[in-house]
Amino acid sequence: MAFAGKAKDIEEIFDILQIIENQNKEGNLIINNDKENFIIKVKKGHIHEINTNANYLSKLKDKEKIPETWKSYFHYINSAWNNFYFNFKEKKIKENKQCIPISHFLLNFSTERDEISHIIKKLINNNINFSIKGELKEENFNTLDLWVYGQIIKGTNIEEIIFGNIPLKGILKSINKLFKAGLIEAKISEETKEEENRLVEKEKIEEFEEFLAKIIGPVAELLIIETLDELNIEKEKFSYSETSLFIESIAQKIPEDCIFEGYLCKEIVKNKFFEIIEATGRE
Fold this sequence. Notes:
Blueprint: E1 3-7, H1 10-22, E2 27-32, E3 37-43, E4 46-52, H2 67-80, E5 84-90, E6 100-101, H3 102-125, E7 128-132, H4 143-154, H5 158-162, H6 168-180, E8 184-188, H7 190-197, H8 202-216, H9 220-230, H10 243-252, E9 259-260, E10 263-264, H11 265-277
Antiparallel strand pairs: 1-5, 2-3, 2-5, 3-4, 4-6, 7-8, 9-10
Helix pairs in contact: 2-3, 3-11, 4-6, 8-11, 10-11
């Protein structure tokens, strides 16, 4: 079996991987945009290895047989790519003892994506970097905390920090831990500050309202108006700096047991909101 085409989002790649798993095929699934590619090696319904030529992921090259690295790769695709091409070719694959069932991997990744994808996109798209503010005492921090602190001392940009080690979720926790301890501070570029003060276009609010209505029904418009009012935000003067507070307030009003297309409504709503209002990724 060989097939190829264009995918508009990572969900379509999930579908292709599940087809490969169900048909028990063996070979390489290649996905690429104009500059980067990923080769997903599959055999007997399992992912055995993922290779890439992406420069930002070069520090993970020696860890390409580790499932935790694959999650970082998928987070990168999810945050940095808008659309891409795929091509599956049957080929004998060398087995990897750390292989993982495709469906199991996709479930784990999807759960983690719902938790942290909006944080990754916020850090990358706003060009946020960190500088040292205080001296770290090693006994209070783990190895990953020390690695992150060391990267910040070197002046490494945020994208290279996030995708420079594993686990990615642990890196975000380390950044938060160092920030709360007063050891690092965020630096936002002037360009980003201007972006934060920019007003959210009316069309984007309407697009989000339409999506929200698919989940909670016709009360979506009322919920948005009510939330803006509670936060003392005028709809015509809704700036990007207020978007995080707004969407968190919206999410808090959605029932915990609400499920949409197999996922928690709260997380889907947050991810879709940021997808609508933010300019994301590289073509």
